[in-house]
Amino acid sequence: MDGMKDFAAEVREFLQAYAVRRSEHADDAGFRWGRGEDRMAYFSAAAPEVEAREVQRAKDWQRTRYDAGLGWITGPAEYGGRGLTPLHDLVYDAIETEYDVPDTGAIDVVGLGMIGPTILAHARQHVKERWLPAMYRGEVIACQLFSEPGAGSDLASVETRAVRDGGHWILNGQKVWTSMAQHSAIGIALARTDPDAPKHRGITAFLVEMSAPGVQVRPLRQMTGGADFNEVFLTDVPVSDDHRLGEIDGGWTVALTTLMNERATVGSEGAGPVAGALDPDRLAAVLRATGTLDDRAVRARLGELLADVMATGFLNARTARGLRAGVPPGPELSVSKLMYGQNLTRAAHFVADVLGPAVIADTGAWGTFAWAELLLATPALRILGGTEEIMKNILGERVLGLPKEPGVDSKSPFRELRRSGGIA
Amino acid sequence: MTGADVSQGTDDSDLEELRAAVREFLADKASEEALRKSIASEPRFDPALWALMAEQLRLPALAIPEEYGGEGFGPVELGVVLEEMGGALLCAPFFSTIVLAAQTLLASGDERACARHLPGIAEGTATATLAVAEEDGAWDAAHVATRAVLDADAGGWALHGSKSFVIDGATSDLVLVLARTHAGTSLFAVDRGAAGLTAEPMTTLDLTRAMARLSFDDVPATLIGTDGDGASLIGRVLDIATTGLAAEQAGAARRCLEMSTRYAATRFQFGRAIGSFQAVKHKCADMLVQVELAQAASREAARLAAQGDAGFPAAAAAAHAVCSRAFMFAAAENIQVHGGIGFTWEHPAHLYFRRAKSAQLLFGGPGAYYERLLDRLGI
Q: Is the domain defined by A267-386 classed in CATH 3.40.50.2300?
């Protein structure tokens, strides 16, 4: 694969010119107690002005990548992509992790990772031309307007309505758990266009401009105290029919494109702000600082946790190696997601139990009360991106081939289904 | 199958070919029916089956270097074979002879001992085992009380003491014994027919893995390796042995999952396949998570061993912990998914349950393996 070698060399040359290699940082030489930022959080919980600065840095870095021909490696050339393979993408990611670059999670997890591929697959050509290059240049952030208060795990039961009015559709409803909505220029919304059809067959997908009249974004405060998500209210929002994605009543197919790309991103979690929570040295340091390093019961819990953390790492490494060799992933990504949530949850509770009073109230000691924030984030890890229960259904049905739960809801007209809140 | 360049590793498709050959052989020759015959007889394995394994597939030779008459493959290929043997609960002296004894001889670096014992093992004409634990069951050189005494007149060593939990101890042609000397602990070789050696079979939880108590009354023995090197040797052997055990456990856990899935899809209650109930479906999904994790951990440990990677000892300890828990979980849940039928003697589920608990505790259990992991990580 000489072509791949050339590509890797090109990536290195680019990163060498625009970023600093991690190992060149003296500060990165492993964890040391009492040194560095005293934070242990899953959600950003940053003040709005700090967050806005981070988003701008992400956009700027994306622009730099794009200008170097590395902003959309797998995208078709006509929309500003490089036209290379997913393997090239993996090679880029692998090399970039060696460098200290701005975190672009704000724009690429949902926007570039999930919404971009959906627009590419389902939008009209002039809509692709208008939005895709702008997205991958880092100018336009996109969000996913899928979940609703009444449609969580059962996404196909969305109630937001879209009614045709000449060349437009008028959307009314409420979306929830929308990441980055406050920074987004566009979003993809699922709305019900035929309530008399079974639930999967009466949904249509639309590309909504967030600046359109009737779109209202409100921050949603989660149990950690921060607001990393939003509620989005849609009141008589007009969407031109040429911004419809896919067929009328064919929105479920569009949603599956988005969700498939969501699953492709979960395996790559773990290098974010909380990676330190699973670092053996950092966990050992907590034991040392609390004088529990020789406590046999505490050591056994640490050993059990680290065995799972290592095994999960092995699973990810083997999946990544398989992908590089062209082996399609099996159930590993779902298993990895479940384990990541469980490992982080266990780490947070383990450290909290060891710290004891220092997690009940802030004593001011470094590296102690900071864990409270991660502890409070852990319930989300069993819910977001597909609840544990849904993940287990997927494993049971799609991997093990067990029969689905018998139900009437996928055959009956959506209008006749019983929904939360006792709507008649 | 010819000798492989170990440094290159075996291609994935070759590994799958090896797996298929072993699986087919075991399905044919080591069926549940054959297994039940073996566990009801003495010796607790079928010598004809052992001979066949050597003749047809050269399995005892697989992980022995070519210079000692073996095929020259490494831990990755051995792991594939062990996964299949674990899945079938093979009742034969493979783990004791190949994973424990042969690997101990190789790890000792004693070329004379290797040249003397390994060709017979590779050929399938000799079986062997490793005796470390005593009455307290600990695989820890510090707990060894059996003594080796150098008799200047006779010009050789003699062993005094006893060993317990010796896998296939009553049938092995060669017993490698860890014993105390003035220099610390050292490894010795004892022939089965040696004067003063008595073997007494132990009643075991795992019916598919025979164990014995061995007594040594002035038994002539040959020193292997360097006098006093026993403790560090056993440490290295444990990393290798637990990696092999982990492969067996991962394979057996997957077999439990397969049994449960098949049953849950075909057993009807309340007019539905029980696998359509989330309570049962999620049990199977939980088993799948454990199985995938176990498989990744055991295969990665074997890969690191083959590469001589510095991370191997920690990976071995992690694999041992994860695979022990995974197999125990899968074996217990398998019975639960089966309900009453799974609790009967006739159903194989209990054989897996027995193997699972026994394997989990074989090298010390949770109390030892979490500590071993922290030790390997320097914590």
A: no
